[in-house]
Fold:
Amino acid sequence: MSDKAKNNMIRTKRVKVQSVNRSKKKNYNLIVGGSITGVILLMILIGVFYTPYDPNAMDASAKFAGISMKHLMGCDNFGRDVFSRVLEGSRTTLIVAAGTVFIGTFFGVIIGALTGYYGGVVDEVLMRINDAIFAFPSILLALVFISIFGSGKYHVIIALGIAFIPSFARIVRSEFIKCKNMDYVKSAKLQGAGDFRIMFVHILPNTLTVLLSAIMIGFNNAVLAEAGMSFLGIGVQPPDASLGRMLSEAQSYLFRAPSYALFPGVIIILMVLGFSLLGDGLKDE
Amino acid sequence: MRYAGKKMITMFLTLFAVTLFVFLAFHVISGDPATSMLGTQATPERVEALREEMGLNDPVLVQYGRWALNFLKGDMGTSYSYRMPVSEMIAGKIPVTLTMTIMAFLLMVVISVPLGIYTARHAGGVVDRVIYMINQVIMAFPPFFAGILITLIFGRIFKLFTPGGYISYEKSITGFIGYLFFPSLAIALPKAAMAVKLLRSSVISESKLDYVRTAYSRGNRTGDVLYKHVLKNALIPVITFLGMALADMIAGSIIIEQVFSIPGLGRILLTSISNRDYPVVMAVIVCIAVLVLVVNMIVDIIYGLVDPRISVE
Amino acid sequence: MKRKAMKSFLMIVLTTLAIALTGCSGDKEGGNSSQITIGIPQDLEDSLDPHKAVAAGTKEVLFNLFEGLVKPTSDGSLIPAVASAYEESEGGKIYTFTLRDGVKFHDGSLVTAEDVKFSIDKCADTNNGGPLVAAFSNIESVEIKDASTIVITLKEADTEFLAYMTTAIIPASNENPDTNPIGTGPYKFVSRSPQENFIIEKFDEYWGEPANIENVTFKICSNADSIVMDLEGGSIDMFARVTASQAAELSDQFEVLEGTMNLVQALYLNNAVEPFDDPKVRQALCYAVNPQEIMDIISDGKGTELGSSMFPTFGKYYMEELNDTYNQDFDKAKELLAEAGYPDGFTFTITVPSNYQPHIDTAQVLVEQFKNIGVTAEIQLIEWDSWLSDVYQNREYESTVVGVDASSLTGAALLQRFTSTAGNNFINYNNADYDAAFAKALASTDDAEKTKYYKECETILSTDAANVYIQDLPEFVALNKKYTGYEFYPLYVQDIAKLKLAE
Structure:
């Protein structure tokens, strides 16, 4: 038994050496993740200026057309060109995810900073509100939101953004609690820096590594949440294309036109995959 | 004890805030239960008469107060759309969602703990790299899409279960659990992937710590005990994650229930929201919120047990 | 110690897995008594009281549990049911019904004249803001002449009144009609589980031709996208209203029957708001639309083009020629827009209930067709309940795509709503000629004359472009070949009693 255990320890030790070596050699996560993300971003950028067809133009004769030179990814149930719609849909998805993460980070940082730095009553009150939102299924929050303000891209962003605030606030708060008693903060205080200056100029940059990985994860969760909302019919509205919406529309035609589901699905997976590899890669640097 | 008491009070306040918010929100949105009950036969006079009868013309806060009082007395009211007691309606649904969530949780633990430890021990190896990639891809799957693929592969091609063939637990317990297995798997997989990743990095970083190194330099090679320490410490962040994942699963089951046509709390919630069936919406939300809060509380307590540095006081 | 705990934990997990996997091998029930599972897209989130139920999905199921004095047949005529005979006198002012002997309710009690009077009075009661059946406001009195004769006297003669006597007869003694439906139909209620199923079984003491299948389960299939898999996997045997695409994906294990939905699908325009208060704008929209293209795209070309608020099942009232009032002509449309003062087009919103895919799809095609004449339409999806209150009740909308069906087999069921004072005139249509023509149709006791005036109404709706008429949607019923006997009705019902096992 002890032999085996010894083995374990040796292995663990070797890991350390290896991981050090690896980061010195090649950071595959960064390379692979970066290239996937790069290609997708490039595609979205091209889509802004050029799509082979009007993404919403319908053609009854091209209904469920297969993959061909004319239609690189085939056509959907309205005879719309899937490739053009994927270009447009990726953009929508990217905007939704970025907007969501922006709202979540922005308010999360403010709340987290205030509660973490000051503690006391402010902390107690805000954290209880935070917990309340946290206990509230985010899908439900989104549903209520959409019901009040109506559907559409921007409402999805707001709804998801709010649902994302608590997790960011928690992360930032714990970082601030950790940092607020550190020496550099104390010395800044002695120099007469104001609270806000200390919070956002001195402490915030030090939480960046943690915040960055939270943003990467948040971004991916937002992409997936958008897909989930589209599935429940409360996401981006037709005729606008988003990857989630296309994927959920396509599932009715899995046998008749598998390519319709395949491409939006693959792009979502690549988008999320690229980002999380990139996130892991950055951590290793 | 004081800790538990404090937790209970915060939980109570949270519930109060959540229910009040939902109640108010539902009074802002368009569509009202009276119109919903009368459908296309509604005339302004009939809607008005029904609103009066249902007490919908009272001020919102009066309505909330009435609801809250009755709820505390154990009366959840009557469903507007089904005209049956809400308690009767959701009592049959809680076991469904709960069973599915617990199965998903067990699956997650069973899959992730061994894999996490294995990949940490063999970090950098071929298996580790392969599992890492598989993990990343699983995490990138939109949950409903994963559900559909599982139905397609295991239901349609391998015929391991009948798609849409949900069997009530009152009819057959084994059939019930059998049908819920694949939906649970769909919920568990992405969470398991995250847990593996977390556990792996946690074990690795723990074993880099000074006390492990010191133990080595002292020639402590009876590593079994040591490894237990490493594992125990490495598990702390994982437990936090598992707790959060469990809470997430309760809410996330809404989508999976929809994919697999399972009549659980999520389904009831979705339809009662669109029917403006407030008594049901409120009851389900309270149920879900209580489940989430209880899970959080349990995690806090376990956290304190595992890591003595964190005092529960 | 710990290791033991771990071990027992693992044991529990493994046992669960084992049970789960064995459970997978299916608990198919033996087929000793005939049974069928029918998928329905929405639960019966409604009162089970046939007089209070409002959702079309509830009514089509309750059709199997309840009957009126008369009942509709699949060819659109009315036959005696709880009544064995009826007589119309004084030009449609007095209706005399003779009750059938020995008709029993599901609870075993006999139907009495008191039950009939109770049922009709209940629907005519005005104490809750209006009668449950709007046409019953015309009832002067309901009298019990003797134990088996009921006389209904109307305020105004109405030759179409018999169609409303399909109103369900329920026992006066039932204390919980909302949750415990008791009727006289060929099937009786067994149980329901919200969002799961609704179970009925054959009523052995039914007065008429008995049902063929013993046990019927309506199973709620909320995920419209998995219906094909549910059918193929065997968890449901039948699903009414699959889409053309779903029908195309089904294997030859299933028979796909094709009928029509019997509704008027149109882009309904709020005639009271700008710019739709101008007939020229409405006509321009009609010229922009090509119903055939819509049908080609959303249902592989199936469907019936409509030109007014009437569908072919009504036979004598239907006017096919109205389909050609407007044929797609972009130049003509632009010309009309310019005349109306919108040479550069305009922007408007199409509000669509989110629960019904064909309407959403239709709206998407419409948006594209309107682009051709410079008109920009935006789609706004709202939940059905918001639709009911915002669009139908408060009429706060610009346009909407829905299907309007007939609640009874009368011309009035479709045309009355467009009279300027109708409570359900949700498009705010206001046309004196139309009101006059409709009043004449209603007052007329001669069938040919009535038909003539109804046709006049339809023509006005068409030429005045009250709405942009599109189609009567096709209906596809997927039925496992183990069963046969499905019949389409001109009303929104599913007659399960006619289904039987295939030989």
